[in-house]
Amino acid sequence: MIHDYDDMFAGHVEQADKRQANADYMADILWKYVQPKSVIDVGCGMGFFLKSCADRDATIKGVDGEWMKDKETVIPKKTYRYADLNDPLKSTKRYDMAVSIEVGEHLRPRRSPTFVEDLCKLSDIVLFSAGVPGQGGAGHINLRYQSDWAKKFANQGYACYDPIRRRMAEWQRAFPWLMQNVLLYIKDGTPIDPLLDEHRISPRASSYLIAMHYQTRMTRMQRKVDALKAELAEKTALLEGKTPEPESE
Q: Are 88 and 6 a contacting pair, CB within 8 Å?
């Protein structure tokens, strides 16, 4: 990782109860279709989703940057492995499921294809989400629409399934990025629950935005633009020795 995430981490601590509740709710949905006995979470942060998996009797492994070594976590530190996620992951072990939730947007853009390759080397089942353009957030340097990632998984022979987003959207406490971005990728030929098959979608069908969240981000951005315009007008007027006229409503 190449960003100072202290402020982001402080937000995660402050929202710990809600983040754990979101992880639990997402796991409840997922376990209707797959019941992994071993799970690795790449970019696991404090480990909320891994705790949900451990509570469902899965063995867990978390991977994140050195910055997490001295941070508070909700899973034992002995389950962690520390690595720079911008570099290829070195692992020969396979898991029943690999997970990466809202991590890809923090990585260097050129890392995207090999990051997907690394996740696919870890498991035939990958739960994945990453930030989309306009989503905002700390250290978001690689924002891509869901279909871009879905095509990268398709190149590895993984089909896209969408059993979680609509169910998350029904829940009032759900984070908008989980309603919007979380997809399940499964290697072609892997036996799956027949109930899951109806949720298979094409990569291009994977891209959509939560209107409420998107509009909130756009409103904030417009306010920043308006404030910068006003500041520029004021400074220009001072340089020219004039009093700026107020903008009309």
A: no
| Number of alpha carbons in the 13 Å side-chain half-sphere of residue 173 | 12
What pTM did the predictor assign? Answer: 0.83
**What is the residue whose two structure tokens read 């069908």?**
205
State the helix-helix crossing angle for 146-155 and 112-122, rounded to 10 degrees: 60
Asked whether residue 247 carries a pLDDT value surpassing 80, the answer given is no
Handedness of CA 44, 46, 52, 53 (dihedral sign): positive
Token reading at 99: 């997970």
Q: Calculate the dihedral angle through the C-alpha atoms of 22, 122, 104, 56, rounding to the nearest 10 degrees.
A: 10
* Partners of 183 in the β-ladder: 128
Whole-angstrom distance, CA of residue 111 vs CA of residue 117 = 10
In the chain, the amino acid numbered 62 is G
Please give the Cα distance from 163 to 95 (Å, whole number): 21
- The residue with tokens 């935005």 is 209
- Give the pLDDT confidence of 162-205 residue by residue, as tens digits: 999 999 999 999 999 999 999 999 999 999 999 999 999 999 99
Q: For residues 63 and 48, give the distance between their C-alpha atoms in angstroms, rounded to a whole number.
A: 13
Indicate the burial class of 143 (C-beta count within 10 angstroms; 0-12, 13-18, 19 or more). middle
Residue from 31, 43, 148 nearest 86 by CA: 43
Average pLDDT of every residue of the chain:
89
